[in-house]
Write a structure and sequence with these properties.
Two copies of one chain form a homodimer. Chain A has about 425 residues and is of the alpha/beta class. In chain A, helix 3 crosses helix 6. Chains A and B meet through strand 17, strand 18, strand 19, strand 21 and strand 22 of A and strand 17, strand 18, strand 19, strand 21 and strand 22 of B.
Chain lengths: ~425, ~425
């Protein structure tokens, strides 16, 4: 069994902790059980490893996300990079062709495809494995996960199963209904939410890609990616398939993409360096900075502080955040890098001072342009010719390779400088 | 006429914008009329200069405040530095002896003594000059400013004048009363608040110092400062003097020492990079950082962000700030320096990365200890052998003098490094 994890999405709804490259699946706000925090992506991978350490997960990510994926999962993660944003079927096809051509996966192998848009409990990850097993057993060509609704919702499409059995054939799909209609679907037809989680054999995906794009070769798909038909997996595959099964999942499956939903998930807790008085209530405080947040008497609000800015919002106002944030949207200051990460501490028109983190075992080449000078000071950690206090300066196109033996922290000061006129 | 401005006080009530060295009179939150901000100290000096550019003001400050005073008022400000904290009479005596011994001021010269604890309008500064003129005319040995109360208050001592005339003899002084008693004082006796603003001849101050400390010599007072009797000016002087006049002041005189009073003074406005939606009300937002604060739907609160931390507090909770802030009180990250200022951007156990600002015309010697290395990168401005992009590294007791031709901004990375063992 192999898994494909779709990784994408923007960052405005969780500003200032997330941004375009640092989107919701990457933000580290979930308890890692060791006094630290982990992201939904890290959590998903760790849940899967816990069930089966050998199951390989390939991450299908957009170009802006790949550095962040490597930052969180390490340099040797299996990863396909979409050269541009198309839609789910091109992204899935690219990942499937990579499994075939690069990883030489048996075309009969079941493939489970999912995303980490929502927060789910451990049984969700067990259910992913069940989907693969159902495919293995030959029950259906395509197996979906159906989420048991915790109430009628107009935010999801619905799957109508043939029966209320744990695994059932799918009778039909219904578009997002209004709340009243949703209630009827659930009460009268055992309807389930379509979470976009499904499984099939690799061969099945490849055949569909052949039909839609004229090829299922990785070389072809990556080369022609920007011209591939923009088509969703639902439209390209699900709607064309008569033999679909659905497996019911009745655990937690909660939206984690807005501050209000995150406040519920995190039980209005504190993330990071936070002090609150006993008169604060119904308030989430997330602090990504290295200075304290003090909250006194605040009720029904979200306070979030990060390198990109500070948000203080009444929970009722959160739905407007995405549009209001355009007024404060700056060039991101927190940037995931394949070797670790970068946080901009201070920025002027012609300079940038940043904290760089380089993960143990990673290599990174620091480069400069003409007229640009960079000074790097090692604060912590060790690497080749490098220990705390080591300073190096490069400029005008020079490079410097860092090979990190342990996690390294550096301060980088980048400055555009005046080039001296050459003397005759 | 000469003036002595008493400059002191802590910083917890306006955390995180103020701290112990950066106390309330230094924080830049008042409109400077040019799109920028100025402090109460800068404002006071500018109001006085506007009335008479030649009047010299000597700042009486504690050791922790003197760098900040020089940062705001320039290197050539007249300043006495109290070696330790005693009380108002030692501080005033030290400043008076400095005027005599260093500035050779005529003992007959009127001296006006005041502080910038409160926010006052222009007529307050005009009134300061009137106090000096009343002394000059020989009306009384000591002249006080009496603030016309805008209501009964239990926060101030009261002056009972002999009449309601603009200038009157003082009949007596009364301790802080309860509100009901205060009301009677005001209604029946034209009572005034004692603001601790007064004037007398220099000679008068010196004689009192001779009596209390046995000397009015600057050399003696500075040398014996830590052992000088801790005594207030009220107790040492005012209570002993039968011939006191009071001048009524009826302009603005508002407390600026807490976030609630500052919110009223600043009309719940925005300071710094702030975006708020139209559903915010009765909320002050002060942002000293270079990232934006976004406030949505917040009502009746204070939001303040600075290098030392972030405060989000309901206004009703502000009176408790001083005690709560001890839980988040860290080593200050924003530090006024005589040559400009320092903001710590990132701090670890063994390193500190800061933004240094050096004012045009200032000189500063950057020093290092053994085992410490500092790298400085010039971001903006110019000085001797220095322009944007200039980098220098010093270590192990080395020094580097910076002479700033224009305002200079530098990034300093200070790191403790391991000293290599010497080879045999």
């Amino acid at each position: 069994m192999r898994m494909i994890l779709l990784c994408g999405g923007g960052g405005k709804r969780l500003w200032p902790i997330s941004n375009n490259t640092h989107s919701k699946q990457f933000i580290k706000v979930f308890d890692d059980g060791n006094g630290g925090y982990r992201s939904m992506l890290e959590r998903a991978i760790s849940e899967i490893r816990e069930i089966d350490p050998d199951t390989q997960v390939t991450i299908a990510a957009g170009r802006v996300q790949t550095e962040e994926v490597r930052s969180q999962l390490g340099f040797d993660v299996s990863l396909t990079e979409e050269p541009s944003r198309r839609n789910t079927f091109p992204a899935i096809s690219l990942a499937a062709s990579y499994l075939k051509d690069h990883d030489k996966v048996d075309p009969q192998e079941p493939i489970v495809i999912f995303s980490v848009d929502s927060y789910a409990d451990h049984s969700f990850y067990e259910c992913l494995f069940s989907l693969g097993e159902i495919v293995e057993n030959g029950t259906a060509n395509l197996v979906l996960m159906g989420i048991e609704p915790d109430g009628p919702s107009d935010k999801y499409g619905y799957i109508i199963p043939a029966s209320s059995d744990p695994v059932s054939a799918v009778r039909e799909f219904r578009e997002k209904p209004d709340i009243e209609t949703a209630r009827k679907y659930i009460e009268q037809e055992h309807a389930l939410w379509n979470a976009g989680v499904f499984a099939c054999r690799l061969e099945y995906l490849l055949k569909r890609a052949d039909i839609v794009f004229g090829s299922s070769s990785y070389a072809y798909l990556i080369q022609h990616y920007p011209e591939l038909k923009q088509i969703s997996f639902d439209y390209a595959v699900v709607e064309k398939e008569p033999n679909i099964a659905v497996k019911r999942y009745n655990g937690t499956w909660a939206d984690a993409g807005t501050w209000t939903s995150l406040a519920t998930l995190l039980n209005n807790g504190d993330v990071g360096q936070v002090v609150r008085d006993d008169q604060c209530s119904d308030t989430l405080v997330v602090n990504d900075l290295d200075i304290p947040v003090l909250a006194m008497g605040i009720k029904g609000a979200v306070i979030a502080a990060g390198r990109d800015g500070i948000l203080v919002a009444e929970k009722d106002r959160i739905p407007d955040l995405k549009s209001v944030v355009d007024k404060v949207w700056l060039e991101p200051r927190i940037i995931g890098k394949r070797y670790g990460g970068k946080e901009v501490l201070y920025r002027t028109d012609s300079s940038e001072t940043s904290l760089l983190t380089i993960r143990a075992g990673s290599s990174v080449t620091i480069k400069t342009d003409v007229g640009v000078r960079k000074t790097l000071t090692v604060l912590r950690g060790a690497g080749e010719q490098m220990k705390p206090g080591t300073i190096f300066t490069i400029q005008d196109g020079e490079k410097w390779q860092i090979n990190a033996d342990t996690d390294i922290e550096l301060i980088e000061t980048m400055i555009e400088f005046e080039i001296e006129p050459e003397e005759d």
